[in-house]
Amino acid sequence: MFSLTTNRIDPAVLHRAVSNPKAGGFCSFEGWVRNHHEGREVLKLEYEAYPTLAEKEGNRILAEALERFDILHAVCCHRTGPVEIGGLAVIVCVSAAHRDATFDACRFIIDEVKSRVPVWKKEYFADGDAGWVRCDHCADPNHHH
Amino acid sequence: MNVLIIAGGMSRRMGRDKGLVTRPDGSRQIDHIAGLAKQISGQVHLSVRAGTAAPLDLPLVHDLRPGAGPLAALEAAATTSSGPWLAIGCDLFLLDAETLARLVEQRDPSRAATCFLNRIDGRPEPLCTIYEDRALVAARAALDEEKHCARRFLESLDPATLDLPNPVALDNANTPGELEECFAKLTRGASLKTVRVLHFAKLREERGVDQEFVETYACTAGALYEELRFRHRLSLESTALRAAVNGDFAPWNAPVADGDEVVFIPPVAGG
């Protein structure tokens, strides 16, 4: 299940959502709000989503992960609205019988979410500037920011 | 009345000669325009680039200043015969006889030019316009000053302006996507519809609203975006965006219907 929330994300809730007696492995990815971007100091972030399509596309990605990897459950939750530095912006949780699939599926899900789900991020910089992050390379797994 | 069909453009973005495009009814675009022109005049000329083969049997006019655009075509035409000259772009895929008939009937010879206004931005359209003799003199002067923009030139003439009898008649096509839209209007008809457009992120800020109801003749999502981009001077090109219709991703040539919800999705950046 992919969801959007304007409230603080509680990782324990998502952990429970993927718990399963058959699971021997669990992996999660958390995306946190960082205080810098390409050398500039960031004060806060604001996320905006097209909710109908974000949830539809997010759930498609989770369904694809269940199809591609030998996993039991996968969930993802993304914050919208303002998120403070250090805040949890996105979380992916995956459970599987064995650990390898959880790592692979977790990586797949976060990469696809970043490049396909209609969520946008506006950065507010310490120098007073603000702008929508536009990254055409996010789909490239060798690109990090 | 002399008619000048302007077919000398490079069609760079279309990737092929627009006059030679085959219309949905199987005819060539240049023959369609020539047929309309012959309905109103016995003196139809064709402006082509020097060195190109004539696509049909009409007297040719070659630019005196190659590569200087439609004004150079007018300048060259004026040396073959005095005005008035009716200039018609060969890429008007939706031009019809009724539109040309109205232009000719309502020509105002006391003004330097008679033209229609663009249905979206309200500015005069230079390539379906009657230019009087003094406009042709002014065209030469503009070229001498290296002013090549036909639209700005026409505005400088303070032309007589007419409303279009058929609003989409002067919709042109410079790209394959725009051509597809013109053909959709030809085959499905161009009806006025109202769609709800939601705006997000950078587009929302540029447009200044998070949603709006838009009245449009566009048949496809791509054409709707081009209308909005043109009307509101939006910075993002469609190549940077994706379209969504009624809550799901859709190709740019997806049809839009009355009551649809459409979203143009800027580059995403979650996580």
Supply the number of helical segments of chain A. 3
Q: What is the C-alpha radius of gyration of chain A, as a whole number of Å?
A: 15 Å
Largest sheet of chain B: 7 strands, mixed
Topology of chain B as a string of helices (H) and strands (E):
EHEEHEHEEHHEHEHEHEEE
CATH topology annotation of the largest domain in chain B: Spore Coat Polysaccharide Biosynthesis Protein SpsA, Chain A
Uncertain spans of chain B: none
Radius of gyration of chain B: 20 Å
- Unreliable sequence segments of chain A: 136-141
Strand content of chain A: 35-45%
CATH homologous superfamily label of the largest domain in chain B: Spore Coat Polysaccharide Biosynthesis Protein SpsA, Chain A
Q: Distance between termini of chain B?
A: 64 Å
Protein structure class of chain A:
alpha+beta
> Which CATH architecture of the largest domain in chain B?
Alpha-Beta Complex
Shape of chain B: elongated
Helix content of chain A: 25-40%
| Number of helical stretches of at least 4 residues of chain B | 8
Structural class of chain B: alpha/beta
Quaternary structure annotation:
heterodimer
Given this structure, which CATH class of the largest domain in chain B is correct?
Answer: Alpha Beta
